[in-house]
């Protein structure tokens, strides 16, 4: 059977983007076949390029969020730089920006202005708190939005709230921007018109807070912070093993508890003991429940514990660190790793989670150097050598 083209083959995206939220959104579009042109500052580019040097000398955030893009470096404080962006947009299908509040509007690059001029364009404004309201102008870094959205209040231990170890607010906004673009492109296919798309980090993360939010609004109390445990399910935690590992298990119903009691703990009578027979009773007696499970697993190695739990039909997992994730046997068995090019040579990268059997594989293009495609893109919008030379001489393009 003939392979189908990538879904976004032929779609061009212009992105005036920085950090994580917009770059991660547009990387998803590139993975589906779109051509993504990244507009960067001439003085260092996307500031995420400078976060660290962990990826072979490149910033790990930048490598993660920017493969498969073309980079053009422009000074948008100069009207000639903005004019180049407008010429790029004139031939594009999608425009994405996450500039500071008000900056895109001052440049005439906000979604409403662009869609009025280009009816088929899908234009995305990503912000921290939305375009209006008392928080509209606040700086919105990921950790700050995690705090404002209440995520930190439900993450951590009873004595210590903590932020998520990944940029959850950025990722949430990125994925809603990505799905918003796809929805708007489908609508354009029907109506012939694109239109604005608005996504805020607070709105996105507030949606992800749905369970604790509804628990608090309708139940009267927010869920407690319980570390790796679950606020309303027991046993549900990580337990040390004899070899220094930790194994997590989750008992979702009383049938599973009876199997755990008989086949792992070795005390089948706990399956009917009123102190443990129901989830409500086990939560009420959480310390005793955890002690029983901990004693049973504490004498086993992690591998032994996992085998025993799986044989009993109890959901379980190892507590892996990041390096162990990089060597995860499931990712290796499913051949999820590829190499992508970069200014420092090949780097390992995961295939995107969306798999389209019968279609082409995600292109997994190179991570661009700053301004790597500036000259080619300036020529593509019709600029002559003398114009390009003037932009470079005056520091408008690099």
Architecture overview:
The structure is a single chain. With 398 residues, this protein is an alpha/beta fold. Helix content is 40%, strand content 15%. The chain contains 17 helices and 13 strands. It has helices at 21-31, 60-66, 79-90, 103-107, 111-117, 142-148, 168-191, 201-208, 210-219, 254-265, 279-284, 286-298, 302-311, 322-326, 329-333, 374-380, 385-393; strands spanning 12-16, 35-40, 69-73, 94-97, 122-127, 156-157, 160-161, 195-200, 236-240, 246-250, 315-318, 337-340, 347-350. The protein has a six-stranded parallel beta sheet, sandwiched between helices. The chain has a three-stranded antiparallel beta sheet with strand order 9-10-11, with helices on one face. β2 (35-40), α2 and β3 form a beta-alpha-beta unit. The longest helix is centred in the middle third of the chain and has 24 residues, at 168-191. The protein is elongated and about 85 Å long.
The low-confidence runs, each spanning 5 or more residues with pLDDT under 50, are none
- How much of the sequence lies in strands comes to 5-15%
* DSSP strand count: 13
Alpha-beta classification: alpha/beta
